[in-house]
Predict the 3D structure of the following.
Amino acid sequence: MTVRHCIAALLFSILWIGVSAKPPLLVAQGIEQDPPTQPDTGFTPDWDWSVEKFMANEVIYAFGGQKKWKDKSWNIAFDVVAIVNKKEVERYSYQWNRSTGQCIASGKIPDGRPWQVNFSDVTARTGTATVGGKPVLRSELPGILQMTANRFNDHLRSILLPFFLLDSGVVLMMGSDTTLPSEHSSPGELGGGMPGGGTMQGGAMPGGGTMQGGGMPDGGMPDGGMPGGGMPGGGMPGGGMPGGGRQGKITALIAEFTQDSLQPSLYTLYLDNNREVKAVKSERGDQELFLWWDKTKRFGDIRLLIPIRQQTLDRSVTFQYENINVGKFEIKADG
């Protein structure tokens, strides 16, 4: 059995445990209070824009605006922490130089040894990788670089999704106004409002999977699994999500990322009247995931609004984003 087969088998077991864990983590929803942001004066809309594009711009404005986002002189670093049944099961760290494309990803394999991938250019998938301080096999390096870059991009899109809405290769659609489901809805009940009927199988961990087997960090889906292993979806025009636990109508904005490899990635953003994201549903193929955006906070001089906690539909799995640093700092590899 090859290292890759071992990774796949162990990954599936971990994901299945995460998905089937039912005890709810009832955490109060809220937004940390901070001073109002300065108006973003760096944007002039095209008056022939569609309703969807105007909506997307309102969402971007609510999360910090385009002007500073387009300024690539600042960098971002963050940790991704996956918690199942109140226990931390995975932690990954990322540092990204936006102007050069340098990116450092790091974590630990199950036996405690550290791994690190140092991209000279994360877009080009070029760089080096080590496990336990030793270089990985040359034959395995391309696969490790590919999967780690895909996972990083998935996490980046998961926490900074609003800022990608007006990128080229993104098709926007308005879904029907709807109501959000109850936290106690089951994936089967939710499937009635999702294209393809959906489950959360394969979607406990953003980016899909763990680094297992001692040499392959990031056992995610080849060519990039969506956060939680599935692409945002659902809420297609003419079909909202089943109503249930929360009062009031929610606006559904659907973003299809056609540039994604293998299959397009589909995200549905559920927005309140202030254009803040309350939840996101993702879909790729037959894999789907619903995440509550439970808590957001503004960071750095850039004043970007970033979700610091997301939870699955039944709140059995929590994704926390910690040690977030937004600003002009140096990217440094460990050791």
